[in-house]
Design goal:
Layout (H helix, E strand, L loop, with lengths): L4 H21 L2 H5 L10 H10 L3 H15 L1 H4 L2 H28 L7 H7 L18 H20 L3 H22 L4 H6 L3 H15 L2 H10 L1
Helix pairs in contact: 1-3, 1-4, 4-11, 6-8, 9-11
Length: 223
């Protein structure tokens, strides 16, 4: 039994709600400073909603990994991967343009050209920047990175399970090492490789589909 398109959309919807909760109420400092959306319920309710929101990133990454397996024939095409990346970026650029327009209207600082170019692929973004950006756009660079790495990851994930897990541990360590050694000299490169923990959810999503975990869970329940 596969996760149908409709169920995937439902899961994405839950993840989007979680993302909104995380970005509205996910930082305790915002709650303490009353710098958030709220006022109807106690701060504890908003804090709990913010914690719930932490499910969004693993869910998105899991579904991406599951899609990698369920649509292997499509993802195996370089043209398809390029099309997916460009479509994703185009949609992000629309939101980014809106952020820039609103920011300029509010008197915020426009980023330098080099920073703007980095922002366009989800780098050098955050809530503490002194320039206009989409604060939580780090997932953009993460999504692009796993599309670029797909051919390599696909070879690893299609190995027999013991070898697959061994190679994934090595790959995880390699990504972590690249992040550490580039932090001081090449911070943009380090930022591109700083989402190694989210990669685990991609692995799990792929292996979940490959080993038909849902079927096995349902079979166990019937037994």
């Amino acid at each position: 039994m596969d996760i149908s398109k409709e169920k995937q959309y439902t899961l994405k919807g839950i993840a989007i709600v979680g993302m909104m909760c995380l970005h509205f109420w996910g930082n305790p400092q915002w709650i303490n400073e009353e710098n958030m959306y709220g006022g109807v319920f106690s701060s504890k309710i908003y804090e709990m909603a913010g914690h719930f929101g932490n499910v969004c990133v693993p869910m998105f990454a899991f579904l991406t990994g599951y899609s990698f397996f369920a649509q292997k024939a499509k993802w195996g095409s370089g043209r398809y991967r390029l099309k997916k990346a460009l479509r994703f970026l185009t949609e992000y650029w629309v939101y980014m343009a809106l952020f820039v327009i609103v920011g300029l209207c509010c008197g915020e600082k426009f980023p330098r050209l080099d920073i703007l170019l980095h922002n366009m692929v989800g780098l050098e973004v955050g809530v503490d920047t002194e320039y206009i950006c989409v604060p939580f756009a780090w997932y953009v660079s993460f999504y692009l990175s796993i599309i670029i790495l797909y051919p390599f990851l696909n070879k690893i994930l299609n190995c027999k399970l013991p070898l697959c897990l061994f190679l994934l541990i090595i790959f995880y360590g390699l990504i972590e090492w690249i992040h550490i050694v580039t932090q001081s000299r090449l911070p943009v490169v380090a930022e591109f490789f700083r989402k190694e923990n989210t990669l685990v959810s991609v692995y799990v999503g792929y292996l979940f589909g490959k080993y038909r975990v849902l079927d096995k869970l349902l079979h166990t329940k019937k037994s």
